[in-house]
Automatic annotation (TrEMBL):
Its main location: membrane. SUPFAM superfamilies: MFS general substrate transporter. The chain crosses the membrane at residues 7-31, 43-63, 75-97, 163-188, 216-238, 258-276, 285-304, 310-331, 343-367, 373-393. PROSITE patterns: MFS, SUGAR_TRANSPORT_1. Residues 402-435 are annotated as: Disordered. Belongs to the major facilitator superfamily. TCR/Tet family. This is MFS transporter. Residues 9-397 form the Major facilitator superfamily (MFS) profile domain. The keyword Transmembrane helix applies. One of its GO terms (cellular component) is plasma membrane. It is found in: Cell membrane. It comes from Desulfotomaculum copahuensis.
């Protein structure tokens, strides 16, 4: 693949997680406005996050299986359309319904969550298909950075849209879906040889074999990704309320303040992707360091409450997230062969969604008891994930099971070089990508 074409492909792929993250992050700065407009409790308004994330987490394994069987693009593009239609439904409900507005919006959010199931996790699997060896680590770092960039942009964007009306964010979703869906359709030619032709029983048996041999590493990685996003979204949920009550910030100023920790996450994700491209053996310890940094930051906030320390601590938590997630993405996508990668990455995406879903209500529930309890208990959760990662993640387990049938990404690239074949992502620039 020529560098310009590679850049265009990565841009299209990066648009998928960026759009997906708008589904929750863009609403966080307008949650207080929605709460006031619809006369909701704090718990009820948090359902706008939870009822997007839980359906996504439940449907993701199905989307992963379908992508392994029929192709990634055939899942991603319809999923993006469903995602956009859910936003339209929520906006129209707020605009035209006079009663049962909130239940209708929750129903639309469920539809959006179902669409989201086929977006970022499948894009991650497709990235793993298209890029091999060190290029995979770099590309997945860019994908995670795009996810983080969405989290940086979305609070400001959500706050700006909130100046129009509290439901304007819902109507914005389809506007960003269309160009990304077209980019995926027109720019990417996925390798057709990666499709899995096994029946469902054989397929599930092969997935079980992967988990049987690598259960400790995979389950620990799943836990680390879920905990990292639970803490990030819990902190952002708390920060949204805290900025209004403690500093009387609202609108764009509040959006910019919310973007600070996520900006650190985004920058760190990109740098981490470049670093592990050259030093794959560092991945395990970057995961441990990232989770430990999150634990330390939250624990400090349990002791001290000064304004400057608060923003330093939440920024360091963003750095910790940026260290953790790109490494886990590479570990997960490299744990199995391409024909089973869709389901494994989708299961990982599902537990990430569960973390996002649980973060706001968990922080809200613990805050009801006391702020120190909220910070100390969540710091303990991060410390536990760091300890398990230190003990159970083994980077050598990235070599897929099955001997000669399944090899490491680097091994596949080497064998391709010996046989004169190009890796999956390197095809002739003279050949036009098919829809």
């Amino acid at each position: 693949m020529e560098p310009p074409h590679r850049t265009a492909v990565l841009a299209a792929l990066s648009g998928v997680p960026l759009i997906m993250v708008l589904g929750n992050s863009m609403l966080i700065p307008v949650l207080p406005a929605i709460k006031g407009a619809l006369h909701l409790t704090g718990f009820k308004v948090s359902l706008l996050i939870t009822l997007f994330s839980i359906p996504a987490g439940m449907v993701i394994p199905v989307a992963g299986f379908l992508s392994d069987r029929f192709g990634r693009k055939k899942v991603i593009i319809p999923a993006l359309i469903i995602y956009g239609l859910g936003g339209v439904a929520a906006g129209l409900a707020a605009l035209f319904l006079k009663s049962f507005v909130f239940p209708a919006i929750l129903g639309a959010r469920i539809i959006q969550g179902i669409g989201a199931a086929g977006t970022a996790p499948i894009a991650m699997a497709l990235t793993g298909d298209l890029f091999t060896g060190p290029e995979r680590s770099k590309s997945l770092g860019i994908i995670e950075a795009a996810n983080g960039l969405g989290k940086v942009i979305s609070p400001v964007l959500g706050a700006l849209l909130g100046l129009i009306t509290w439901f304007a964010a819902f109507l914005f979703f389809p506007l960003v879906v269309i160009p990304v869906a077209l980019g995926i359709w027109l720019l990417i030619r996925e390798p057709s040889g990666n499709r899995n032709k096994q029946n469902l029983g054989q397929y599930l048996h092969s997935i079980a074999a992967v988990f049987e041999k690598k259960s400790a590493m995979l389950l620990t990685s799943f836990l680390g990704g879920s905990v990292a996003l639970l803490l990030l979204f819990g902190v952002l949920f708390f920060l949204s309320e805290y900025l209004e009550t403690a500093f009387r910030l609202s609108g764009v100023r509040k959006g910019l303040a919310l973007a600070v920790p996520v900006l650190f996450m985004c920058s760190t994700s990109y740098i981490t992707g470049l670093l592990i491209k050259k030093h794959l053996a560092l991945m395990k310890w970057l995961v441990v360091t990232g989770l430990a940094l999150m634990a330390a930051s939250l624990a400090v906030l349990g002791f001290y409450q000064t304004t400057w320390l608060f923003f330093v601590a939440v920024s360091l938590a963003g750095v910790g997230t940026g260290l953790t997630l790109p490494c886990l993405n590479t570990i997960i996508t490299s744990a199995t062969a391409a024909e089973r990668r869709g389901l494994v990455t989708s299961l990982y995406g599902g537990v990430r969604f569960v973390g996002v879903a649980l973060g706001p209500p968990l922080f809200g529930l613990l805050l009801g008891y006391s702020r120190p309890l909220m910070f100390f208990s969540t710091a303990g959760l991060a410390a536990l994930a760091a300890l398990l990662s230190a003990v159970l993640i083994r980077v050598r387990d990235m070599t897929a099971p099955g001997g000669g049938a399944e090899k490491t990404a680097a091994g596949n690239k080497t064998e391709a070089a010996r046989s004169g074949q190009k890796p999956a992502w390197e095809f002739s620039p003279a050949r036009k990508p098919s829809p």
